[in-house]
Amino acid sequence: MEVIILSSPEAVSQMGGRILAHQIARCPASVLGLATGQTMVGVYRYLVEQHCQRGLDFSALHSFNLDEYVGLGPSHPCSYHSYMAQQLFNHINIERENTHIPDGLCSDVMAHCREYEQAITAAGGIDLQLLGLGDDGHIGFNEPSSSLSSRMRIKTLTPMTRRVNRREFPPGESTPLHVLTLGVANIMEARHCLLLAFGANKAPAVQTMVEGPINAMCPASVLQQHPHCTLVIDEAAGAFLQLADYFRFVYEHKPAWQRALLEGSP
Hints:
- The protein is an alpha/beta fold and 266 residues long.
- The chain has one domain: Rossmann fold (3-Layer(aba) Sandwich), CATH 3.40.50.1360.
- Helix content is 35%, strand content 16%.
- The chain is built from nine helices and ten strands.
- A seven-stranded parallel β-sheet has the order 1-10-9-6-2-3-5. Strands 4-8-7 form a three-stranded antiparallel β-sheet, with helices on one face.
- α1 packs across α2 (41-54).
- The longest helix has 18 residues, at 9-26.
- It is globular and about 55 Å long.
């Protein structure tokens, strides 16, 4: 796991955007695994700017989102279908038939999960999986105690996750109790995992994820075993890392060609 500690949330978003843009420019037909939430807003803003100002081409791209609320249709303003349209898809030249988001209204959950996994396989697998980090260490909606070999399924959200996500919903509308989510094993099958986190509230989960034991109570900790995982965080999120100085030293002394992949233009 490569740990990069930057000065601010804005810097984290910019680097996340650059890594994604580099992947798209290098391989226009990439298959991206996409995530939602406040952490990704700046990342998608960067990609839109690259498309509008520099012509970054999304026309051959395929995308698969991690999750969706059960009971919310694509037109619901708090669905992840709506989020992706507002934050990214409406502003770039991606073909809508190449974008995939779980169906929160599906009538047969198990069949839909199988079909979604099969679609990922048919597309060639995920080249780069974008991830956020829950305050309790979840990735996707794989809450603490999720099997580290889990696959796509329906999950019940914890009270903590529902409280955090309450801000996405208008007054009087409760956070859904269930979601469809890709499992930990699905995430681990991606060729490259890119996890972004910022803010002091993420610091305990970051420390447990990076320096703690691999444990289902912190599902993100399994990324310690991923062959190509990049973790980009700000100073606040890295505050509890015992090896923070070492991580900074490693990043500052990267060979020029490695730094160019992270910091250069797409």
